[in-house]
Specification:
InterPro entries: DjlA_N (IPR007791), GTP-bd (IPR006073), P-loop_NTPase (IPR027417), TerB-like (IPR029024). With about 600 residues, the chain is α/β, with parallel strands linked by helices. The chain contains 24 helices and seven strands. A seven-stranded mixed sheet has the order 1-3-4-2-5-6-7, sandwiched between helices. The termini are far apart.
Length: about 600
């Protein structure tokens, strides 16, 4: 059977019009956590070559990676996977999810979604994961990279298709392990012994802060769960006491408020801390990395900056060719992590706030790229998120000149400083002043570097036709000024930045329920004052009622006895000659007529 499937797949993949749906599921899983690591992208393309994927499969793969509106959705792809290949296809996507030793919530959800489409029994995925030796819940593997890889390999150990065999061979590349990357990369600009030492210090601080954050979040959740149980108990006790006649309205109000509190606690507060804890857990993979995010509007030069700094991704930068994606791209080198985001304001992409939120949490420094041909207020509106998260900012002002024209290039190289002049009609002073004004409005201060650079000059310095002027072009680009800003942020302030990244979100998350509890305490304080006021009012009413009742009773008693006293003279006249028995029976009769007993 396996041999037949193998032959069938070989034949299928040799036809350019046939789509390899299991491979497209793998592609979807690579994108599931909304980040595409540079090594994942490269390995995916190599994987396509190894399995001899047809033209239509390659086209659909590129659409998924770019999140094209016309891509085949996860649902469409999953439904078209043949029944005989579903089990192995699930093993493949789980292997991708667990390749770094951590299966994120988004990756788990995608696997569960596919299982649901296939009408698999609940828990089938969990069973496969446990059989492969991974943890039963979405968690970590505290093992070496080789051991982490073995979890993914074990998921595919019974597989026999070309895709699975090729995938096992490529899993090592997908881990992004430094020793693997070193064989494939030249050194990036952000490298050197000073960086190595700074990163080492950052890693030490990060691990300490990570453990502290985990403990703090775990404690906060434990307390909130305990609070939830006590709320349920109090609601039950109050409701059981107010189900009889004469129900107390105030008790009902308290029970209703307790129900609202419990609902808010479980639906919002606990969920928010769970989300933050999950976010913190996902950062475990990058504890040893210092993360720098490149942000800015579309075509501002982020991808060019990324390619210059990392010497990676040049194939997507060619003249007139701009890489478009709706997901963050990640590049790692010697424990420096660079995140290249989609363009702010990109048509059909995520909102600016979504882009910012997706990267701010995990970044230690934000580098925002703007151009001198257009500096708009709208570009800076998302900066309030940086202020909220206490994230440091570096503004890179990309000075645009048409250096592809040899005349402009010669003119620029004769006097590079002229392109960066502050004064004059074409000077940068007005742009920088405007940047500071916009940023101050949204970021609340202007204490951040604004570094003018000419990215195109730096790009030309990497192109073969300008090899003889490489140093001259790079120096003229002023890229070194930008690298110095990064160096200062990392080497001088790296440990502080790392603490902000790990502790900042945790402190905020713990502070949120604290504020919520304080607000709830105020509500119950007001209810307590109302109850106390009503208690005092009832006490006074009881005292008055007691006095009135006692007075009325005394008057009534005196009235009844007075009637008996008044009846004595007439009774005596009637019974003056009666014997003792007659007197007794007659008096009892008279008292009965007066209703004395009643």
């Amino acid at each position: 059977m396996q041999t037949t499937l193998k032959k069938t797949e070989q034949v299928t993949n040799n036809h350019s019009n046939t789509i390899n749906y299991p491979f497209l599921l793998v592609t979807h899983m690579v994108c599931a956590d909304q980040q595409i690591h540079s090594e994942e992208s490269k390995a995916l393309h190599e994987l396509a070559t190894q399995i001899e994927a047809g033209q239509r499969t390659l086209e659909e793969m590129e659409k998924i990676l770019a999140q094209d509106d016309n891509q085949l959705s996860v649902e469409e792809v999953a439904r078209r996977v043949p029944s005989s290949q579903k089990n192995e296809a699930m093993c493949q996507i789980l292997a991708i999810a667990y390749v770094d030793g951590f299966c994120s919530v988004l990756e788990r959800k995608m696997a569960e979604r596919i299982a649901q489409i296939w009408n698999w029994p609940k828990g089938e995925i969990q069973k496969q994961i446990e059989e492969a030796g991974a943890f039963s819940d979405t968690g970590f593997l505290d093992e070496s990279n080789q051991q982490k890889l073995s979890v993914s390999a074990r998921l595919l150990q019974k597989a026999d298709s070309i895709l699975s065999q090729a995938l096992v061979n490529k899993l090592a590349n997908l881990t992004g392990a430094e020793e693997k990357v070193e064989q494939l990369r030249r050194e990036i600009l952000l490298s050197g012994p000073e960086y190595d030492e700074a990163i080492r210090e950052c890693a030490v601080v990060a691990k300490e802060d990570y453990q502290f954050s985990q403990f703090a979040l775990r404690s906060a959740l434990s307390i909130l769960y305990y609070l939830g149980k006590n709320l349920q108990k109090s609601i039950y006790e109050i409701q059981s006491k107010t189900n009889s006649k004469g129900q107390a309205n105030t008790a009902k109000e308290v029970a209703k408020q307790l129900e609202l509190t419990e609902k808010s606690l479980s639906a919002e507060i606990i969920k928010e801390i769970e989300d933050v804890r999950e976010s913190l857990r996902s950062k475990e993979r990058a504890l040893n990395h210092f993360s720098i995010a490149f942000m800015g509007r579309t075509k501002a030069g982020k991808s060019t900056l990324h390619a210059i700094v990392t010497n990676d991704g040049w194939e997507a930068i060619g003249v007139g060719k701009q890489r478009t994606t709706r997901y963050n791209r990640v590049y790692e080198w010697k424990n420096i992590r660079i995140i290249d985001t989609p363009g702010i304001g990109a048509p059909g992409g995520k909102s600016d706030e979504e882009i910012a939120e997706s990267v701010i949490e995990e970044s230690d420094v934000i580098c925002y790229v703007v151009t001198n041909d257009s500096v708009q207020d709208t570009e800076f509106k998302f900066l309030h998120l940086l202020k909220k998260k206490a994230k440091p900012l570096i503004i890179l002002l990309n000075v645009k000149k048409n250096l592809r024209d040899p005349r402009w290039l010669e003119h620029f190289l004769k006097n590079p400083d002229k392109a960066f002049a502050m004064e004059g009609q074409s000077g940068l002073g007005g742009h920088i002043e405007r940047i500071r004004r916009y940023a101050k409005e949204h970021y609340a201060n202007d204490y951040f570097p604004i570094v003018p650079v000419m990215l195109l000059a730096a790009q030309l310095s990497r192109e073969p036709e300008h090899e003889n002027r490489q140093e001259e072009l790079f120096k003229a680009s002023r890229m070194q000024d930008f690298l110095d800003s990064i160096r200062e942020s990392l080497i001088q302030y790296g440990t502080i930045r790392r603490s902000q990244t790990l502790l900042g979100s945790t402190v905020g998350a713990i502070n949120t329920p604290y504020d919520w509890v304080a607000g709830q305490a105020q509500i119950y304080g007001q209810l307590a004052e109302t109850i106390q006021s009503k208690q005092e009012e009832i006490r006074k009413k009881i005292e008055i009622a007691f006095k009135d009742s006692r007075s009325n009773l005394q008057i009534e008693i005196e009235t009844i006895f007075q009637e008996a006293i008044n009846a004595v003279p007439s009774f005596a006249e009637e019974h003056w000659n009666s014997n003792e028995l007659g007197l007794k029976l007659g008096w009892e009769k008279r008292l009965k007529s007066l209703n004395l007993e009643q």
